[in-house]
Amino acid sequence: MSKAYPKIAALRDVTAFRERLRALRIAIPADDRILRADEESPLARPIDVGGFRVGNRWCVHPMEGWDAGPDGFPSELTLRRWRHFGISGAKWIWGGEAAAVCPEGRANPRQTMATPGHLEGLSSLRETLANAHVERYGSDDGLFVGLQLTHSGRFCRPNSNRMEPRIAYHHPLLDARFGIDPRDDSVVLTDDEGHRVIDAYVASARAARRAGFAFVDVKCCHGYLLHEFLSARRRTGPFGGDLDGRSRMLATIVDRIRQEVPGLQVVVRMSVFDSPPFIMGEIAGRPVDYAHLAPYDCAFGVDPNDPLRIDLDEPIRLIGKLRSMGVTAINVTCGSPYYNPHMQRPAIFPPSDGYAPPEDPLVGVARQIDAARRCQAAYPDLPMVGTGYTYLQDYLPHVAQAVVRDAWIGSVGIGRMVLSYPELPDDCLRLGKLTRKKVCRTFSDCTTAPRKGLVSGCFPLDPFYKNRPEADALFDAKQADERHGQTDD
Question: Which of 160, 215, 245, 300 matches a 20 to 30 Å C-alpha distance to 460?
């Protein structure tokens, strides 16, 4: 069994929460209570992003739903999720959906597509969200909605649950982890193929603009293609080597969208630090052996002499370059859900393909908050969105208010929490309290379900998903995993 960490739900009040932070030597602020908008909550303040006055400091992160049609057009499940974004009360919808720029770049065969041929589907997503927002709040003033553009790279599964990877370089640990033959160069994206990927991003951005989106997010995080290029020191040619080469694909996409799609803002969600991959140890997750690779040159934002230690020198330099190119905001995240999920998405219960957390998940939350604080401090005039807050659960608003007030971050983003409790931002700003039975407890079923080929939703807390047939299939799959010793939660 893994070590038992105190559950957030068992911390009786904010005083007990602060005591737990002190015991862990975590220095993050937390307000005494949730403030309403009429009590001058910091989260109610508008924020300027590229000349657009976003109505408040709540942001909804993009998510991958596994529920579009095989043709890449949104299904009713996809639209339902976007309706929930609209009623959430958050004024900044960061991309809403991880939409693939080409068929072979899909992370799953039900991922939403963002090609020019999918204009009607993209328009329906934005209109569904905006209409729901207007119906609930009376207008769409201050509502800032974008679309996340992605290519899944190493984690492409466009036709089935079988990976069909397209990689930036052969990674000596990830190749073995995900069954890639290190001698098979056919899976390595060529420079010519890289230029075609760039073209696809630009075409998708043009489609997003025609669909009415205010911005696009050029996704550069979580182990997907553009993020992997940031660590491609072992790659030769124009897209590898030094930081300029490793960031060239990202920078070229940004520059071309800025030049060729006028009126569309460009933002970037970036994993600003990473780590070697983790696997399940005797009682909890542990990093795979990386000593033979010293100095470790296969991650971005880490100390090569100690890759479990963050080094933000290159990420901060890259953010500065993007800022100078006209990128109007950065969403700060880290790692990957595929090989170090305890860092990327802190949770007490791991997904089915994960491992028991090797640390109190609050440590992972604090790590992300501090990294985002350091990035924001480097460029205080560039709006940034923080990540990793959902595990704070009942005390998420208390911390969110404090970090925004103290200028640690410009806006606070939530992802998983919106699946179980879409109205959380509105309840905070309007009522100053939460409905505890809706608060995400990080059971990780929203990750385990798609890992099993099922749609993603909050099966434990959302009655809509709890009563769907996929809930029974998910339960059976998890039971089978437990019988085979694949999980330890």
Answer: 160
